[in-house]
Protein backbone atom coordinates (compact mmCIF):
# COMPACT_ATOMS: atom_id res chain seq x y z
CA UNK A 1 0.00 0.00 0.00
CA UNK A 2 2.73 2.37 0.95
CA UNK A 3 4.45 1.85 -2.36
CA UNK A 4 1.30 2.63 -4.36
CA UNK A 5 0.71 5.81 -2.35
CA UNK A 6 4.30 6.98 -2.89
CA UNK A 7 4.38 6.56 -6.66
CA UNK A 8 2.16 9.48 -7.65
CA UNK A 9 4.00 11.80 -5.22
CA UNK A 10 7.38 10.79 -6.64
CA UNK A 11 6.24 11.22 -10.23
CA UNK A 12 4.73 14.61 -9.42
CA UNK A 13 8.07 15.60 -7.87
CA UNK A 14 10.02 14.32 -10.86
CA UNK A 15 7.71 16.17 -13.24
CA UNK A 16 8.15 19.34 -11.21
CA UNK A 17 11.93 18.90 -11.32
CA UNK A 18 11.84 18.46 -15.06
CA UNK A 19 9.72 21.58 -15.47
CA UNK A 20 12.06 23.57 -13.25
CA UNK A 21 15.07 22.24 -15.13
CA UNK A 22 13.48 23.13 -18.48
CA UNK A 23 12.57 26.63 -17.28
CA UNK A 24 16.06 27.11 -15.86
CA UNK A 25 17.65 25.88 -19.07
CA UNK A 26 15.50 28.11 -21.26
CA UNK A 27 16.13 31.07 -18.95
CA UNK A 28 19.89 30.49 -19.00
CA UNK A 29 19.89 30.20 -22.79
CA UNK A 30 17.81 33.35 -23.13
CA UNK A 31 20.07 35.32 -20.78
CA UNK A 32 23.14 33.96 -22.59
CA UNK A 33 21.78 35.14 -25.95
CA UNK A 34 20.94 38.55 -24.45
CA UNK A 35 24.50 38.85 -23.10
CA UNK A 36 25.95 37.90 -26.50
CA UNK A 37 23.73 40.43 -28.26
CA UNK A 38 24.70 43.10 -25.73
CA UNK A 39 28.43 42.44 -26.26
CA UNK A 40 28.00 42.58 -30.07
CA UNK A 41 26.10 45.86 -29.84
CA UNK A 42 28.72 47.25 -27.41
CA UNK A 43 31.54 46.40 -29.84
CA UNK A 44 29.62 47.96 -32.74
CA UNK A 45 28.90 51.09 -30.71
CA UNK A 46 32.57 51.41 -29.71
CA UNK A 47 33.58 50.87 -33.36
CA UNK A 48 31.25 53.65 -34.49
CA UNK A 49 32.52 56.04 -31.82
CA UNK A 50 36.17 55.28 -32.64
CA UNK A 51 35.57 55.51 -36.39
CA UNK A 52 34.17 59.04 -36.23
CA UNK A 53 37.11 60.30 -34.14
CA UNK A 54 39.82 61.65 -36.45
CA UNK A 55 42.52 60.86 -33.86
CA UNK A 56 41.79 57.14 -34.21
CA UNK A 57 42.93 57.14 -37.83
CA UNK A 58 46.68 57.03 -37.28
CA UNK A 59 48.92 55.72 -40.04
CA UNK A 60 49.15 52.14 -38.66
CA UNK A 61 45.34 51.99 -38.29
CA UNK A 62 44.90 53.22 -41.87
CA UNK A 63 47.36 50.57 -43.02
CA UNK A 64 45.43 47.83 -41.18
CA UNK A 65 42.20 49.01 -42.82
CA UNK A 66 43.80 49.14 -46.28
CA UNK A 67 45.26 45.64 -45.94
CA UNK A 68 42.00 44.24 -44.64
CA UNK A 69 40.01 45.88 -47.45
CA UNK A 70 42.45 44.53 -49.98
CA UNK A 71 42.04 41.00 -48.62
CA UNK A 72 38.32 41.05 -47.82
CA UNK A 73 36.96 43.11 -50.71
CA UNK A 74 39.38 43.49 -53.62
CA UNK A 75 40.78 39.95 -53.54
CA UNK A 76 37.25 38.57 -53.11
CA UNK A 77 35.81 40.45 -56.11
CA UNK A 78 36.49 37.60 -58.55
CA UNK A 79 35.04 35.09 -56.09
CA UNK A 80 31.93 37.29 -55.95
CA UNK A 81 31.72 37.38 -59.75
CA UNK A 82 32.03 33.57 -59.92
CA UNK A 83 29.39 33.07 -57.21
CA UNK A 84 27.08 35.57 -58.88
CA UNK A 85 27.52 33.95 -62.28
CA UNK A 86 26.77 30.47 -60.92
CA UNK A 87 23.69 31.63 -59.05
CA UNK A 88 22.63 33.71 -62.07
CA UNK A 89 22.57 30.53 -64.15
CA UNK A 90 20.52 28.75 -61.49
CA UNK A 91 18.05 31.61 -61.38
CA UNK A 92 17.60 31.83 -65.14
CA UNK A 93 17.02 28.07 -65.32
CA UNK A 94 14.38 28.39 -62.59
CA UNK A 95 12.83 31.36 -64.39
CA UNK A 96 12.63 29.40 -67.64
CA UNK A 97 10.91 26.56 -65.77
CA UNK A 98 8.34 28.93 -64.25
CA UNK A 99 7.70 30.60 -67.60
CA UNK A 100 7.04 27.21 -69.19
CA UNK A 101 4.95 25.87 -66.29
CA UNK A 102 2.80 28.96 -65.69
CA UNK A 103 2.68 30.27 -69.23
CA UNK A 104 3.80 33.75 -68.17
CA UNK A 105 6.11 36.20 -69.90
CA UNK A 106 9.49 37.60 -68.89
CA UNK A 107 7.81 40.94 -68.09
CA UNK A 108 6.08 39.28 -65.16
CA UNK A 109 8.95 37.16 -63.93
CA UNK A 110 11.62 39.88 -64.22
CA UNK A 111 10.46 42.06 -61.28
CA UNK A 112 10.23 39.00 -59.04
CA UNK A 113 13.76 37.91 -59.97
CA UNK A 114 15.12 41.40 -59.55
CA UNK A 115 13.62 41.77 -56.07
CA UNK A 116 14.86 38.32 -55.05
CA UNK A 117 18.37 39.18 -56.23
CA UNK A 118 18.65 42.65 -54.72
CA UNK A 119 16.73 42.12 -51.52
CA UNK A 120 17.77 38.60 -50.54
CA UNK A 121 20.26 36.68 -52.64
CA UNK A 122 23.03 39.22 -53.27
CA UNK A 123 23.38 40.40 -49.63
CA UNK A 124 23.28 36.81 -48.35
CA UNK A 125 25.83 35.57 -50.87
CA UNK A 126 28.10 38.53 -50.13
CA UNK A 127 27.94 37.67 -46.42
CA UNK A 128 28.73 34.03 -47.19
CA UNK A 129 31.76 35.02 -49.27
CA UNK A 130 33.05 37.46 -46.64
CA UNK A 131 32.52 35.13 -43.67
CA UNK A 132 33.95 32.09 -45.44
CA UNK A 133 36.92 33.95 -46.84
CA UNK A 134 37.72 36.63 -44.28
CA UNK A 135 35.58 36.24 -41.15
CA UNK A 136 37.15 32.95 -40.18
CA UNK A 137 40.58 34.32 -41.10
CA UNK A 138 39.96 37.34 -38.84
CA UNK A 139 38.98 35.23 -35.83
CA UNK A 140 41.95 32.91 -36.45
CA UNK A 141 44.38 35.83 -36.72
CA UNK A 142 43.08 37.56 -33.59
CA UNK A 143 42.98 34.33 -31.58
CA UNK A 144 46.55 33.55 -32.61
CA UNK A 145 47.60 37.06 -31.57
CA UNK A 146 45.94 36.66 -28.15
CA UNK A 147 47.42 33.23 -27.47
CA UNK A 148 50.86 34.31 -28.75
CA UNK A 149 50.90 37.40 -26.52
CA UNK A 150 50.89 39.85 -29.46
CA UNK A 151 47.82 41.70 -28.17
CA UNK A 152 49.64 42.27 -24.88
CA UNK A 153 52.62 43.62 -26.84
CA UNK A 154 50.32 46.13 -28.54
CA UNK A 155 48.67 47.08 -25.27
CA UNK A 156 52.04 47.50 -23.54
CA UNK A 157 53.10 50.02 -26.19
CA UNK A 158 50.02 52.13 -25.52
CA UNK A 159 48.19 50.98 -28.64
CA UNK A 160 44.50 50.27 -28.09
CA UNK A 161 43.73 46.84 -29.62
CA UNK A 162 40.15 47.99 -30.15
CA UNK A 163 41.33 50.91 -32.31
CA UNK A 164 44.14 49.10 -34.07
CA UNK A 165 42.75 45.58 -34.49
CA UNK A 166 38.96 45.48 -34.14
CA UNK A 167 37.64 48.77 -35.57
CA UNK A 168 39.36 48.59 -38.99
CA UNK A 169 38.41 44.94 -39.40
CA UNK A 170 34.71 45.50 -38.66
CA UNK A 171 34.62 48.50 -41.01
CA UNK A 172 36.33 46.56 -43.76
CA UNK A 173 33.84 43.68 -43.39
CA UNK A 174 30.91 46.11 -43.61
CA UNK A 175 32.32 47.87 -46.68
CA UNK A 176 33.23 44.55 -48.29
CA UNK A 177 29.77 43.02 -47.83
CA UNK A 178 28.18 46.14 -49.35
CA UNK A 179 30.52 46.25 -52.34
CA UNK A 180 30.48 42.51 -52.95
CA UNK A 181 26.68 42.47 -52.83
CA UNK A 182 26.64 45.01 -55.67
CA UNK A 183 29.21 42.98 -57.62
CA UNK A 184 27.29 39.75 -57.06
CA UNK A 185 23.94 41.30 -58.04
CA UNK A 186 25.52 42.73 -61.21
CA UNK A 187 27.17 39.42 -62.02
CA UNK A 188 23.88 37.57 -61.54
CA UNK A 189 21.98 39.91 -63.84
CA UNK A 190 24.64 39.91 -66.57
CA UNK A 191 25.10 36.13 -66.47
CA UNK A 192 21.35 35.59 -66.31
CA UNK A 193 20.86 37.76 -69.39
CA UNK A 194 23.73 36.11 -71.27
CA UNK A 195 22.50 32.59 -70.55
CA UNK A 196 18.85 33.48 -71.12
CA UNK A 197 19.70 35.19 -74.43
CA UNK A 198 21.85 32.23 -75.47
CA UNK A 199 19.01 29.81 -74.65
CA UNK A 200 16.52 32.05 -76.43
CA UNK A 201 14.59 32.45 -73.18
CA UNK A 202 15.18 36.24 -73.29
CA UNK A 203 14.60 37.91 -76.62
CA UNK A 204 14.98 41.55 -75.56
CA UNK A 205 18.11 43.51 -76.42
CA UNK A 206 20.57 44.24 -73.59
CA UNK A 207 19.51 47.89 -73.39
CA UNK A 208 15.81 46.97 -73.20
CA UNK A 209 16.57 44.34 -70.58
CA UNK A 210 18.62 46.85 -68.59
CA UNK A 211 15.91 49.52 -68.90
CA UNK A 212 13.41 46.98 -67.63
CA UNK A 213 15.59 46.28 -64.59
CA UNK A 214 16.27 49.93 -63.88
CA UNK A 215 12.55 50.71 -64.10
CA UNK A 216 11.93 48.01 -61.49
CA UNK A 217 14.28 49.67 -59.06
CA UNK A 218 12.50 51.57 -56.32
CA UNK A 219 13.33 53.19 -53.02
CA UNK A 220 12.22 50.10 -51.05
CA UNK A 221 15.01 48.11 -52.72
CA UNK A 222 17.54 50.64 -51.45
CA UNK A 223 15.87 50.67 -48.05
CA UNK A 224 16.34 46.93 -47.85
CA UNK A 225 19.69 46.51 -49.59
CA UNK A 226 21.69 49.13 -47.65
CA UNK A 227 20.74 48.21 -44.05
CA UNK A 228 20.80 44.51 -44.81
CA UNK A 229 24.35 44.55 -46.13
CA UNK A 230 25.61 47.00 -43.52
CA UNK A 231 23.95 45.50 -40.43
CA UNK A 232 24.58 41.89 -41.43
CA UNK A 233 28.19 42.74 -42.27
CA UNK A 234 28.66 44.57 -38.98
CA UNK A 235 27.29 41.63 -36.99
CA UNK A 236 29.48 39.15 -38.88
CA UNK A 237 32.60 41.28 -38.33
CA UNK A 238 31.85 41.89 -34.66
CA UNK A 239 31.21 38.20 -33.94
CA UNK A 240 34.45 37.12 -35.63
CA UNK A 241 36.44 39.74 -33.69
CA UNK A 242 34.79 38.93 -30.33
CA UNK A 243 35.35 35.19 -30.75
CA UNK A 244 38.95 35.71 -31.78
CA UNK A 245 39.77 37.98 -28.86
CA UNK A 246 37.94 35.84 -26.30
CA UNK A 247 40.02 32.74 -26.95
CA UNK A 248 41.51 31.15 -23.85
CA UNK A 249 44.06 28.39 -23.69
CA UNK A 250 46.72 27.42 -26.19
CA UNK A 251 47.32 27.48 -29.93
CA UNK A 252 45.39 24.22 -30.32
CA UNK A 253 42.20 26.02 -29.26
CA UNK A 254 42.44 28.45 -32.17
CA UNK A 255 40.94 26.23 -34.93
CA UNK A 256 37.99 25.30 -32.69
CA UNK A 257 37.29 28.97 -31.97
CA UNK A 258 37.59 29.88 -35.66
CA UNK A 259 35.16 27.26 -36.92
CA UNK A 260 32.66 28.13 -34.17
CA UNK A 261 33.04 31.78 -35.05
CA UNK A 262 32.17 31.09 -38.70
CA UNK A 263 29.00 29.22 -37.74
CA UNK A 264 27.97 31.91 -35.26
CA UNK A 265 28.51 34.65 -37.85
CA UNK A 266 26.47 32.76 -40.45
CA UNK A 267 23.67 32.20 -37.93
CA UNK A 268 23.69 35.90 -37.08
CA UNK A 269 23.55 36.90 -40.76
CA UNK A 270 20.49 34.72 -41.38
CA UNK A 271 18.85 35.96 -38.19
CA UNK A 272 19.55 39.60 -39.04
CA UNK A 273 18.18 39.08 -42.56
CA UNK A 274 15.01 37.53 -41.17
CA UNK A 275 14.51 40.26 -38.58
CA UNK A 276 15.13 43.00 -41.15
CA UNK A 277 12.63 41.38 -43.54
CA UNK A 278 10.02 41.37 -40.82
CA UNK A 279 10.76 44.96 -39.81
CA UNK A 280 11.03 46.47 -43.29
CA UNK A 281 8.10 44.69 -44.90
CA UNK A 282 6.05 44.73 -41.69
CA UNK A 283 5.19 41.09 -42.08
CA UNK A 284 5.82 38.08 -39.89
CA UNK A 285 5.33 35.08 -42.17
CA UNK A 286 1.97 35.81 -43.85
CA UNK A 287 0.48 37.89 -41.06
CA UNK A 288 0.78 41.62 -41.25
CA UNK A 289 2.23 43.15 -38.10
CA UNK A 290 -0.16 45.62 -36.56
CA UNK B 1 69.18 54.05 -2.99
CA UNK B 2 70.14 57.60 -1.99
CA UNK B 3 67.09 59.76 -1.41
CA UNK B 4 66.78 62.64 -3.84
CA UNK B 5 64.22 65.30 -4.67
CA UNK B 6 63.62 64.36 -8.28
CA UNK B 7 60.05 63.45 -9.24
CA UNK B 8 59.03 59.84 -8.75
CA UNK B 9 58.51 57.96 -12.01
CA UNK B 10 57.31 54.65 -10.61
CA UNK B 11 55.87 53.88 -7.19
CA UNK B 12 54.72 50.56 -5.82
CA UNK B 13 52.77 50.97 -2.58
CA UNK B 14 52.29 47.81 -0.52
CA UNK B 15 51.80 45.75 -3.64
CA UNK B 16 50.90 42.08 -3.45
CA UNK B 17 50.77 40.33 -6.78
CA UNK B 18 50.62 36.86 -8.22
CA UNK B 19 50.85 36.39 -11.98
CA UNK B 20 49.01 33.89 -14.14
CA UNK B 21 52.00 31.90 -15.34
CA UNK B 22 53.78 29.29 -13.24
CA UNK B 23 57.12 31.09 -13.59
CA UNK B 24 55.70 34.47 -12.62
CA UNK B 25 57.30 36.39 -9.79
CA UNK B 26 55.20 36.76 -6.66
CA UNK B 27 55.19 39.98 -4.64
CA UNK B 28 53.96 40.33 -1.06
CA UNK B 29 53.53 43.83 0.35
CA UNK B 30 56.32 45.33 -1.72
CA UNK B 31 56.90 49.09 -1.76
CA UNK B 32 59.44 50.94 -3.87
CA UNK B 33 59.96 54.32 -5.45
CA UNK B 34 61.95 54.85 -8.61
CA UNK B 35 62.85 58.44 -9.44
CA UNK B 36 64.15 60.12 -12.57
CA UNK B 37 67.57 58.86 -13.58
CA UNK B 38 67.58 55.96 -11.12
CA UNK B 39 68.20 52.34 -12.07
CA UNK B 40 66.93 49.40 -10.08
CA UNK B 41 68.24 46.00 -11.09
CA UNK B 42 66.34 42.92 -9.94
CA UNK B 43 68.37 39.75 -10.33
CA UNK B 44 66.21 36.82 -11.41
CA UNK B 45 66.69 33.12 -11.05
CA UNK B 46 66.51 31.08 -14.21
CA UNK B 47 63.06 29.81 -13.22
CA UNK B 48 61.59 33.28 -12.71
CA UNK B 49 59.75 35.33 -15.29
CA UNK B 50 59.18 39.07 -14.92
CA UNK B 51 56.61 39.34 -17.73
CA UNK B 52 53.56 39.46 -15.48
CA UNK B 53 55.14 41.94 -13.07
CA UNK B 54 56.16 44.22 -15.95
CA UNK B 55 52.58 43.99 -17.23
CA UNK B 56 51.31 44.88 -13.75
CA UNK B 57 53.60 47.94 -13.69
CA UNK B 58 52.05 48.97 -17.01
CA UNK B 59 48.52 48.51 -15.68
CA UNK B 60 47.78 45.49 -17.88
CA UNK B 61 47.29 43.30 -14.83
CA UNK B 62 45.99 44.39 -11.46
CA UNK B 63 47.78 43.71 -8.17
CA UNK B 64 45.85 41.79 -5.56
CA UNK B 65 46.52 44.53 -3.00
CA UNK B 66 48.22 47.91 -3.06
CA UNK B 67 48.62 50.35 -5.90
CA UNK B 68 51.01 51.12 -8.72
CA UNK B 69 51.65 54.72 -9.70
CA UNK B 70 53.38 55.89 -12.86
CA UNK B 71 54.28 59.59 -12.75
CA UNK B 72 51.86 59.92 -9.84
CA UNK B 73 48.92 58.52 -11.82
CA UNK B 74 47.34 55.17 -11.05
CA UNK B 75 46.00 52.55 -13.42
CA UNK B 76 42.57 52.36 -11.84
CA UNK B 77 39.27 53.30 -13.39
CA UNK B 78 38.11 53.10 -16.96
CA UNK B 79 39.87 56.14 -18.40
CA UNK B 80 41.57 53.95 -20.97
CA UNK B 81 42.65 56.91 -23.07
CA UNK B 82 44.80 58.14 -20.17
CA UNK B 83 46.16 54.64 -19.57
CA UNK B 84 47.23 54.27 -23.20
CA UNK B 85 48.94 57.67 -23.09
CA UNK B 86 50.77 56.66 -19.90
CA UNK B 87 51.91 53.40 -21.50
CA UNK B 88 53.20 55.28 -24.52
CA UNK B 89 55.82 56.82 -22.21
CA UNK B 90 57.13 53.43 -21.09
CA UNK B 91 59.71 51.56 -23.14
CA UNK B 92 59.82 47.82 -22.62
CA UNK B 93 62.00 44.91 -23.63
CA UNK B 94 59.88 41.77 -23.37
CA UNK B 95 61.16 38.51 -21.97
CA UNK B 96 59.27 36.35 -24.45
CA UNK B 97 56.98 37.08 -27.43
CA UNK B 98 57.66 40.68 -28.43
CA UNK B 99 56.73 41.14 -32.08
CA UNK B 100 53.67 41.22 -34.31
CA UNK B 101 54.22 38.33 -36.69
CA UNK B 102 52.44 39.91 -39.67
CA UNK B 103 54.46 43.14 -39.66
CA UNK B 104 58.04 43.50 -40.85
CA UNK B 105 60.82 44.66 -38.53
CA UNK B 106 60.69 48.32 -39.60
CA UNK B 107 56.92 48.45 -39.06
CA UNK B 108 57.26 46.65 -35.75
CA UNK B 109 59.96 48.95 -34.40
CA UNK B 110 58.20 52.14 -35.50
CA UNK B 111 54.60 51.05 -34.84
CA UNK B 112 54.08 52.66 -31.44
CA UNK B 113 55.85 55.91 -32.34
CA UNK B 114 53.79 56.24 -35.53
CA UNK B 115 50.58 55.41 -33.71
CA UNK B 116 51.25 58.07 -31.11
CA UNK B 117 51.55 60.68 -33.82
CA UNK B 118 55.27 61.28 -33.98
CA UNK B 119 56.77 62.58 -37.21
CA UNK B 120 57.76 59.65 -39.40
CA UNK B 121 61.05 61.14 -40.59
CA UNK B 122 62.00 62.03 -37.03
CA UNK B 123 61.30 58.45 -35.88
CA UNK B 124 63.29 57.01 -38.80
CA UNK B 125 66.25 59.26 -37.96
CA UNK B 126 66.10 58.24 -34.31
CA UNK B 127 65.95 54.53 -35.17
CA UNK B 128 68.92 54.89 -37.51
CA UNK B 129 70.93 56.83 -34.92
CA UNK B 130 70.20 54.36 -32.15
CA UNK B 131 70.96 51.40 -34.41
CA UNK B 132 74.33 52.95 -35.27
CA UNK B 133 75.10 53.48 -31.59
CA UNK B 134 74.38 49.80 -30.99
CA UNK B 135 76.42 48.79 -34.07
CA UNK B 136 73.27 47.29 -35.55
CA UNK B 137 71.91 47.43 -39.09
CA UNK B 138 68.72 49.47 -39.26
CA UNK B 139 65.56 47.30 -39.09
CA UNK B 140 64.90 45.50 -42.38
CA UNK B 141 61.76 44.60 -44.31
CA UNK B 142 61.98 41.01 -43.06
CA UNK B 143 59.30 39.64 -40.79
CA UNK B 144 60.35 38.66 -37.25
CA UNK B 145 60.22 34.93 -38.06
CA UNK B 146 63.12 35.39 -40.49
CA UNK B 147 65.38 37.43 -38.20
CA UNK B 148 67.93 35.74 -35.92
CA UNK B 149 67.26 35.87 -32.19
CA UNK B 150 70.23 38.13 -31.34
CA UNK B 151 69.18 40.85 -33.76
CA UNK B 152 65.55 40.46 -32.70
CA UNK B 153 66.53 41.11 -29.10
CA UNK B 154 68.66 44.11 -30.02
CA UNK B 155 65.82 45.57 -32.09
CA UNK B 156 63.78 45.34 -28.90
CA UNK B 157 66.34 47.66 -27.29
CA UNK B 158 65.89 50.11 -30.16
CA UNK B 159 62.10 49.98 -29.97
CA UNK B 160 62.10 50.44 -26.20
CA UNK B 161 64.44 53.45 -26.28
CA UNK B 162 63.05 55.55 -29.14
CA UNK B 163 60.67 58.34 -28.25
CA UNK B 164 62.50 59.31 -25.06
CA UNK B 165 60.55 57.12 -22.61
CA UNK B 166 60.16 58.16 -18.97
CA UNK B 167 60.43 54.59 -17.74
CA UNK B 168 62.36 51.72 -19.23
CA UNK B 169 61.40 48.14 -18.33
CA UNK B 170 64.06 45.66 -19.32
CA UNK B 171 63.16 41.98 -18.91
CA UNK B 172 66.31 39.91 -19.42
CA UNK B 173 67.57 42.32 -22.10
CA UNK B 174 70.73 40.26 -22.71
CA UNK B 175 68.80 37.07 -23.48
CA UNK B 176 70.19 35.58 -26.71
CA UNK B 177 72.72 38.41 -26.98
CA UNK B 178 76.49 37.74 -26.59
CA UNK B 179 77.99 39.56 -23.55
CA UNK B 180 80.25 41.67 -25.76
CA UNK B 181 77.19 43.80 -26.63
CA UNK B 182 76.51 44.66 -22.98
CA UNK B 183 78.64 47.87 -23.00
CA UNK B 184 76.60 49.16 -25.96
CA UNK B 185 73.34 48.53 -24.08
CA UNK B 186 74.70 50.07 -20.89
CA UNK B 187 75.86 53.18 -22.77
CA UNK B 188 72.43 53.58 -24.38
CA UNK B 189 70.71 53.11 -21.01
CA UNK B 190 73.04 55.65 -19.40
CA UNK B 191 72.24 58.22 -22.09
CA UNK B 192 68.52 57.68 -21.49
CA UNK B 193 68.93 58.05 -17.74
CA UNK B 194 70.85 61.26 -18.15
CA UNK B 195 67.79 62.57 -19.99
CA UNK B 196 65.65 61.70 -16.94
CA UNK B 197 64.38 58.17 -17.59
CA UNK B 198 64.07 55.71 -14.72
CA UNK B 199 65.07 52.11 -15.43
CA UNK B 200 63.79 48.86 -13.95
CA UNK B 201 66.12 46.12 -15.15
CA UNK B 202 65.20 42.47 -14.57
CA UNK B 203 68.59 40.83 -15.04
CA UNK B 204 68.91 37.23 -16.13
CA UNK B 205 72.59 37.15 -15.33
CA UNK B 206 74.61 38.79 -12.55
CA UNK B 207 77.18 39.86 -15.15
CA UNK B 208 74.62 42.37 -16.44
CA UNK B 209 75.47 44.48 -13.38
CA UNK B 210 78.03 46.40 -15.38
CA UNK B 211 80.39 48.73 -13.57
CA UNK B 212 79.82 51.24 -16.37
CA UNK B 213 76.27 51.94 -15.18
CA UNK B 214 76.21 55.46 -13.82
CA UNK B 215 74.91 55.87 -10.25
CA UNK B 216 72.41 55.76 -8.64
CA UNK B 217 72.02 52.01 -9.14
CA UNK B 218 70.50 49.56 -6.67
CA UNK B 219 70.56 45.77 -6.88
CA UNK B 220 67.82 43.54 -5.49
CA UNK B 221 66.61 40.03 -5.75
CA UNK B 222 63.26 38.51 -4.91
CA UNK B 223 63.35 36.30 -1.85
CA UNK B 224 60.13 35.01 -0.33
CA UNK B 225 58.07 37.40 -2.41
CA UNK B 226 59.89 40.50 -1.18
CA UNK B 227 62.73 42.57 -2.63
CA UNK B 228 65.98 42.03 -0.76
CA UNK B 229 68.89 44.41 -1.42
CA UNK B 230 72.10 42.79 -2.57
CA UNK B 231 75.27 44.17 -1.05
CA UNK B 232 77.61 41.70 -2.67
CA UNK B 233 76.79 41.09 -6.33
CA UNK B 234 78.62 37.78 -6.31
CA UNK B 235 75.70 36.55 -4.21
CA UNK B 236 73.18 37.53 -6.85
CA UNK B 237 72.41 33.88 -7.27
CA UNK B 238 74.38 30.88 -8.51
CA UNK B 239 71.59 30.05 -10.94
CA UNK B 240 71.48 33.53 -12.37
CA UNK B 241 72.94 32.56 -15.69
CA UNK B 242 71.26 32.29 -19.06
Automatic annotation (TrEMBL), chain B:
In alphabetical order, the GO MF annotations are:
ATP binding; ATP hydrolysis activity; transmembrane transporter activity
Asked if the keyword Transcription belongs to this entry, the reply reads: no
ABC transporter domain: residues covered = 10-242
Checking InterPro entries in the record gives: ABC_transporter-like_ATP-bd (IPR003439), ABC_transpr_LolD-like (IPR015854), P-loop_NTPase (IPR027417)
Query: Which key words are in the record?
Result: ATP-binding, Nucleotide-binding
An example of a Gene Ontology cellular component annotation for this protein is: plasma membrane
| Entry keyword 4Fe-4S | no
Query: Which PROSITE patterns does this UniProt record tie to the protein?
Result: ABC_TRANSPORTER_2 (PS50893)
SUPFAM superfamilies linked:
P-loop containing nucleoside triphosphate hydrolases (SSF52540)
Superkingdom, natural source: Bacteria
Give the protein name, as stated in the record: Nickel import ATP-binding protein NikE
Amino acid sequence: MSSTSLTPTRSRGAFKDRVFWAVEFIGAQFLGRCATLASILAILWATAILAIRPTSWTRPVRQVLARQLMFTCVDAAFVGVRFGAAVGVLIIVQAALWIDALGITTDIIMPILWKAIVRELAPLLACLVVIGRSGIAISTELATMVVGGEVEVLDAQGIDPMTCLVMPRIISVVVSVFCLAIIIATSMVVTGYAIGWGMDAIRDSWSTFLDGIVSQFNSLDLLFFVPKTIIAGAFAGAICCIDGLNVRGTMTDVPRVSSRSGIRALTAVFAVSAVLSVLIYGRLLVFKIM
Amino acid sequence: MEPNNLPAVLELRNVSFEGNAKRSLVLADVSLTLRQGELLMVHLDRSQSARDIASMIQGLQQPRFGEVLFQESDWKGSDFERHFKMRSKIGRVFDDQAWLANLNMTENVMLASEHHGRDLNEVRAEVTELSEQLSLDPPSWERPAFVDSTRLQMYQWVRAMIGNPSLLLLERPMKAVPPLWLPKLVAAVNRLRQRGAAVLWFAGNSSEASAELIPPVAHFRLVSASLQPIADLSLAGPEATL
